[in-house]
Amino acid sequence: MAVTTPARERTRHEIVRQAMDLFQAKGYNATSLQDIATAAGCSKATVLYHFNGKPAVLAAVLEPAAADLAALIRTVDGLPRAVAQEIAIHQFTELAVVHRGVIDVIQDVLPVIEDMPEIAGLVADGMKLTGFLAGSDDPLENDLAMFAINGLLGECRHPGERTDDELRRLCDIALRRLLRPA
């Protein structure tokens, strides 16, 4: 017997899918709730029924990446620094490739990301990731980790320019060259 998805859940999923496409194509700031509603084939009121505003739609778009990042943080938390750094490099590289489109969306909201409580968990986990990648409490190592993350996220914004394998290799080599083992 086939399992069917309730209409409400299908509508919510379609809103998130269309929002992701629009945020990537036009940018978060240039996309309105009406744009999302039109693309999803529903009314703006329907979008607002499912989400309490555009930041909530953004949070739903970012949810899979945020969940994967949270899982990475849980994996490395409490491990010895060198082990945590190695796992963080490998898994961050994989997340950067898997969530290329989301990274493009995040880059668009970076200037105001800390003012968006809907994605505060993602921001906090991003800061924790920086510490794990740094591998130490040295401020220079932390700055290098932030530099590496920002550079790699910028590189991931252009999905057509590199294959997944090319991007995976670039991310891994760049992180290993920039970040000294703990």
Folded structure, characterized:
By secondary structure, the chain is mainly alpha-helical. The protein contains nine helices and no strands. The model has no long low-confidence stretch (mean pLDDT 90).
Short note summarizing the structure:
The protein has 182 residues and is mostly helical.
The coarse overall form would be elongated
The portion of residues assigned to helices is over 70%
Mean pLDDT over the full residue set: 90
Instruction: Please give the number of β-strands.
Output: 0
Q: Give the low-confidence spans.
A: none
**Helix and strand sequence:** HHHHHHHHH
The chain-level structural class is mainly alpha
Work out the radius of gyration: 18 Å
- How many distinct helices? 9
Terminal residue distance: 54 Å
Tell me about the biggest sheet?
A: none
- Oligomeric grouping of the chains: single chain
Content of β-strand: under 5%
